[in-house]
Amino acid sequence: MNFYSINNVISEQLELDGTDLRLLDLLQRDAAISNQALAERVHVSPPTCLRRVKRLRDAGLIERDIAILNDDKLAPILGHGLSAIVEITLDRQGAEHLEAFEARVAPDAAVQQCYRVSPGPDFVLVVFANDMPGYLALAQRLFTSDANVRNVKAFFSVKRSKFEPYRPVVRDHEVSWRA
């Protein structure tokens, strides 16, 4: 049996076996699955399943449960909105400047994703605004008012072909258990 060890934030060793990895895989595909159904899929008893999922949550491996909304079905009600991928290059790239920019943009509700990247720009953001005036307000709030932002390059999405927040947790040779 394969075991994987990780160190969590409180420096305790956490051993993950194949059952834990299957639980993580299934839960990120459908967090609303019942404990009974989840236990059946990973071949453990419901109490064992509940205990294992609690341990994975307590260790911080499961950050939160969310609902993924269907943009196309919401559009007639809320409008399409604007999604943009934005490249940001800072004038000064010292660690304190990178951290300050990140701390400034990450809490903003319009910023859906924030990545430090290399090479090229310093950051790539995925942002959402209701309309172009909303994007302009976002750009002024987050980029124009920051004297350390040297360059902003925005790419506006005309169509989203795929969105999948799934993170593979098993290696290719270990996928035989999926059914």
Can you give a write-up of this model?
- The chain has 179 residues and is of the alpha+beta class.
- It folds into 2 domains: 63 residues, Orthogonal Bundle (Arc Repressor Mutant, subunit A); 86 residues, Lrp/AsnC effector binding domain/regulation of amino acid metabolism (RAM) domain (Alpha-Beta Plaits).
- The chain is 36% helix and 21% strand.
- It is built from 6 helices and 6 strands.
- The strands form 2 sheets. It has a 4-stranded antiparallel sheet, covered by helices on one side.
- A hairpin with a 5-residue loop joins strand 1 and strand 2.
- Helix 2 packs across helix 3.
- The longest helix has 13 residues.
- It starts with a strand and ends in a 23-residue tail after the last strand.
- The relative contact order is 0.14.
Gist?
The chain is an alpha+beta fold. It has helices at residues 18-29, 35-42, 46-58, 71-78, 95-105, 132-144; strands at residues 4-7, 13-16, 82-90, 111-116, 123-129, 149-156. Strands 4-5-3-6 form a four-stranded antiparallel sheet, covered by helices on one side.
What CATH calls the topology of the largest domain is Alpha-Beta Plaits
CATH class of the largest domain: Alpha Beta
Task: Give the C-alpha Rg.
Answer: 21 Å
Q: Total strand count, please?
A: 6
| Run of helices and strands | EEHHHHEHEEHE
What's the structural blueprint in terms of helices and strands?
Elements: E1 4-7, E2 13-16, H1 18-29, H2 35-42, H3 46-58, H4 71-78, E3 82-90, H5 95-105, E4 111-116, E5 123-129, H6 132-144, E6 149-156
Antiparallel strand pairs: 1-2, 3-5, 3-6, 4-5
Helix pairs in contact: 2-3
